[in-house]
What we know:
- By secondary structure, the chain is mainly α.
- The two termini are about 25 Å apart.
- It is extended.
- It is built from two helices and no strands.
- It has helices at about 10-20, 45.
Amino acid sequence: MRALTFPHTPPEHVAIAKEEEADTNPLEGVPSKYHKYAKVFGEEEFNKLPQHWHYDIGIELTEEGPSIHPSTA
């Protein structure tokens, strides 16, 4: 698993901006019939991986393998 890390903590004004930009009503503009699915898109569910099964397969990536770049797609 790869992780993106930064060598320093962001300036305080960045943290304040994130708090100010936080959506106070994330369901605003979403039809009420879809509100029951809101939990699926919440941060708690976003950070979970699905359960592993005995038939899961791995995908091995190689440097020589084909790749799709946005400029050629």
